[in-house]
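Project outcomes to date are best conveyed with an example. Our students and postdoctoral researchers have been running inverse folding experiments weekly, and each run begins with a structure described purely in tokens. The record below, which covers 482 residues, was selected by the lab manager from last quarter's runs and is presented without edits.
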């Protein structure tokens, strides 16, 4: 007798929708709310205080509530306006640090990338966006005069610089069976802190970042570099790389790249350019960056002077094989099975990251929308703003420009009082200027002195915004309050 199989238990009735799923019309309604809040934020950029009038305590009270066990639905979005109102605004009068301006078309690209939710790790995980990343890299390499360079996008200059030095280490002093071979990296004293972190993380030891005193113009002196390399070789150490600044964080000084490349080639060293802040200026003043096409790797933060929303950094390199020597380690499950040059393409063999967000889409959209010409015009405009500020400072008897700078950063200080108190007085001026809220400046140390620093990397900045810097500093200076 054959047994009839008992019927399979019927599945539990499913809820109308999985709990996290929302209908597309609901999504569209949410999008309208977010869109309206985004537009409102952009509309109030000029009128809102640069630094929101909030305190740590108030921001905790507003944004650090208990975890919601039950969802609030659409009213969860109510908080967005408060988030905007308690945020720094990126208008043209924010001159602190090196802040890009969050170009809005690029922000839409970022949003769309999140909706698509591709993994920018390989062509198979996001065919369109993988090709877009390669395309954008090619456009930028060509625009910088480095045609033929390959590259990847990453989170920021710190990571791009770390990756550049990781490639240098693998190229010039790869670890052997007994461990890391070690090595010395050279840079000027004006070099960004990310380089110290990079040598530490690479296990070279911070003491093996040889910081060579910058010259009077805050640039690396090739003769001093040559001497430092010779001293290290004489002491039995292994020089591996030189970092050339393509715009120092403080003054925007650009190291003499061509001369540094010449020293490095004679010594068989890798050359990495830290162009996180400044190398975008090569789009308009390539002569400042002579030798760039001969370096081994370079970083460029698109979220700085290409005005992109965070995060978006570019690492370019001459030799993709060098990137693979540093980063290729492929588990069986991830290996590409395609021999097609496009379809088999994997990014994770050339970067630290495996899963990666699509950073290329915003850049692609922004560049296509505005065109390279508009970016060139904005960068040239920002350099012009810095030159205007330098002239205004030089025309004021109580102000002194402290460092030359070919890019868009201006360092200066108020010198209308007792020179022995200048550092303290300028620190107090900075505090008052930022508290007044019309412009925002940051501080730096140049030749051991406290200075005020304005850096223009915002596509919205106007000449009037730049004039406001001098007006505000003079208004905050001691004689104005006396
Ligand atoms: C010259 C330079 N290098 C590296 C960095 C680090 O970049 P990120 O903040 O994107 O990590 C900065 C940041 O300001 C910089 O100005």
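After processing, the design step wrote out the following sequence:
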């Amino acid at each position: 007798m054959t047994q009839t199989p008992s019927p399979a238990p019927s599945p539990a009735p499913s809820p109308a929708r999985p709990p996290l799923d929302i209908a597309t019309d609901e999504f569209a309604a949410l999008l309208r709310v977010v869109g309206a809040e985004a537009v409102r934020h952009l509309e109030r950029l000029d009128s809102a205080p640069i630094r929101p009038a909030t305190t740590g305590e108030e921001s905790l009270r507003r944004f650090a509530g208990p975890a919601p066990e039950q969802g609030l639905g659409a009213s969860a979005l109510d908080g967005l306006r408060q988030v905007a109102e308690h945020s720094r605004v990126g208008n043209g009068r924010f001159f602190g640090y090196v802040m890009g301006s969050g170009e809005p078309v690029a922000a839409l690209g970022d949003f769309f990338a999140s909706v698509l939710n591709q993994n920018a790790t390989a062509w198979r995980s996001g065919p369109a966006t993988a090709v877009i990343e390669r395309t954008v890299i090619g456009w930028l390499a060509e625009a910088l005069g480095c045609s033929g360079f390959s590259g990847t996008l990453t989170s920021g200059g710190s990571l791009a610089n770390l990756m550049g030095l990781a490639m240098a280490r693998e190229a010039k002093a790869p670890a052997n069976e007994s461990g890391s071979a070690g090595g010395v990296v050279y840079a000027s004293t004006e070099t960004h802190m990310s380089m110290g972190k990079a040598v530490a993380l690479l296990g070279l030891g911070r003491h093996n970042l040889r910081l060579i005193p910058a010259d009077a113009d805050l640039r690396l002196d090739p003769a001093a570099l040559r001497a430092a390399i010779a001293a290290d070789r004489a002491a039995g150490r292994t020089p591996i790389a030189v970092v050339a600044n393509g715009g120092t964080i403080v003054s925007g000084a650009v190291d003499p790249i061509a001369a540094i490349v010449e020293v490095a080639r004679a010594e068989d060293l890798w050359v990495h350019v830290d162009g996180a802040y400044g190398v975008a200026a090569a789009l308009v003043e390539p002569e400042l960056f002579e030798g760039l096409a001969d370096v081994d790797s370079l970083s460029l933060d698109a979220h700085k002077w290409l005005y992109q929303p965070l995060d978006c950094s570019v690492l370019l390199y001459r030799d993709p094989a060098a990137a693979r020597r540093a980063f290729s380690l492929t588990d069986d499950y991830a290996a590409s099975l395609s021999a097609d040059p496009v379809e088999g393409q994997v990014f994770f063999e050339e970067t630290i990251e495996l899963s990666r967000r699509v950073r290329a889409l915003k850049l692609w959209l922004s560049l296509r929308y505005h065109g390279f010409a508009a970016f060139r015009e904005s960068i040239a405009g920002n350099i012009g703003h810095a030159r205007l500020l330098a002239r205004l400072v030089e025309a004021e008897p109580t102000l002194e420009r402290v460092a030359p700078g070919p890019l868009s950063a201006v360092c200066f200080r108020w010198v209308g009082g007792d020179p022995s108190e200048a550092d303290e007085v300028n620190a107090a001026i900075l505090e008052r200027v930022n508290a007044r809220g019309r412009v925002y400046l940051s501080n730096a140390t140049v030749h051991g002195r406290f200075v005020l620093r304005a850096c223009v990397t915002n596509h919205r900045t106007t000449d009037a915004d730049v004039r406001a810097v001098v007006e505000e500093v003079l208004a905050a200076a001691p004689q104005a309050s006396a």
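Residues 372-395 form the longest helix (24 residues). Residues 98, 156-158, 161, 192, 194, 249, 274, 276-277, 301, 313 surround pyridoxal-5'-phosphate (CB under 6 Å). The training component of this project remains on track.
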